[in-house]
Write a structure and sequence with these properties.
Blueprint lengths: L1 H44 L10 H29 L21 H10 L2 H52 L2
Length: 171
């Protein structure tokens, strides 16, 4: 069935692409998180703001922005993980590699496949397409959430960096 082969390839390509893009978002989130934690450590240790009553409010503003950025980065990480986590659907058919038929010896497997009804195998292939489409939809939805959270994270990190730069000039 050419439709099954074509659609399976399209779905698998989309799943692979979503996983690759999500991996890039996770890497970016990791970099942003380390930067924010470094800045947070500097603020809490007092190395970024000299202890002076007039600059105390700047420290509080910087802390709020950085904590918001860290929370947003955590949301990015969670959404990205939901996009790339495995989604194995266990069924006992002629397609799923964990089916009982795949646990037999090679000769038994070959005999069973050759003896199987063509309509049954076609139904299994179509069911597999439906399963892959569901996996692709779920990955895409989680990826969209990860992208939105990343956008918010980037804005917050840029705001915190800009605020810290301006605050350092006000010393």
């Amino acid at each position: 069935m050419d439709f099954v082969a074509l659609e399976r390839d399209v779905l698998q390509d989309n799943i692979i692409l979503l996983d690759a893009k999500t991996g890039a978002l996770l890497a970016l989130a990791g970099l942003l998180l380390f930067r924010c934690l470094d800045r947070l450590s500097g603020i809490l240790s007092g190395s970024l703001f000299a202890p002076h009553p007039l600059v105390h409010w700047r420290k509080d503003v910087a802390l709020v922005i950085l904590v918001a950025a860290i929370v947003s980065i955590a949301a990015t990480t969670m959404a990205a993980w939901l996009a790339i986590r495995p989604r194995i659907v266990r069924v006992n058919d002629y397609i799923y590699w964990g089916s009982k038929i795949y646990l037999t010896h090679a000769a038994e497997f070959i005999s069973a496949i050759k003896a199987a009804d063509a309509e049954t195998i076609e139904d299994d292939m179509l069911r597999m397409l439906h399963t892959l489409a569901g996996i692709c939809r779920k990955k895409h939805a989680a990826f969209e959430h990860a992208v939105r959270a990343t956008e918010i994270s980037l804005v917050l990190v840029v705001c915190s960096e800009a605020f810290l730069m301006i605050a350092s000039i006000w010393r």
